[in-house]
Specification:
The chain is α+β, with helices and mostly antiparallel strands and 169 residues long. 20% of the residues lie in helices and 23% in strands. Strands 3-9-5-4 form a four-stranded mixed beta sheet, with no helix packed on it. A three-stranded antiparallel beta sheet has the order 1-7-8. The radius of gyration is 17 Å and the shape is globular.
Length: 169
């Protein structure tokens, strides 16, 4: 069993033994955001997350490791990043996304803020942690095929001033 299979096994065991009130993914998705078991355990203790009513952004306690944050722009305390900024480019940031993102060659910054997105599991009703990542929640990107028409204008406005760091700064 390799390292990734072992992590998947441990997460599945935690879910089966009900040690965490959250239903957790077993596909390694959290690893891409550097979410550790300590983060998952802590999130499972947060009433706002366990309520499974959608996105929740929280400040983590000092004992948890900081997380990478890719968001660049006013929401992260930066100047606006215009679409015609000389360093802006469009690229696919991976993770199975079918759309490109507005990117910049920047290192990811560390943050003590975490956003968790939960919903009730369709089969069990148990809170399901869809994703968690470092930083604040940003609107879906304008090119995201899952973006609802009623959210398009706000998405365009937000992403006109923001970009994502590609980690290659």
């Amino acid at each position: 069993m390799n390292k990734e299979q072992y992590k998947t096994y441990l997460r599945q065991r935690l879910y089966e033994n009900n040690e965490n009130p959250l239903k957790l993914r077993t596909d390694g998705h959290y690893d891409g955001h550097q979410i550790t078991q300590a983060h998952l355990d802590w999130l499972g203790q947060q009433p706002e997350v366990v309520a499974a009513t959608g996105p929740v952004t929280l400040t983590m306690p000092d004992h948890l490791p900081t997380l990478p944050n890719a968001l660049i722009g006013p929401e992260s305390g930066d100047l606006p990043v215009s679409n015609d900024h000389p360093e802006v480019y469009t690229g696919n940031r991976g993770g199975g996304r079918s759309h490109d993102s507005k990117m910049m060659p920047r290192e990811l910054r560390q943050t003590n803020v975490i956003t968790a997105i939960t919903r009730p599991d369709k089969e069990t009703g148990k809170p399901f942690l869809i994703t968690a990542f470092g930083g604040v929640l940003a609107p879906q990107e304008p090119g995201d095929p899952n973006l609802r028409p009623e959210n398009k204008e706000a998405s365009i406005k937000f992403w006109a001033e923001h970009a994502l760091a590609d980690g290659r700064g």
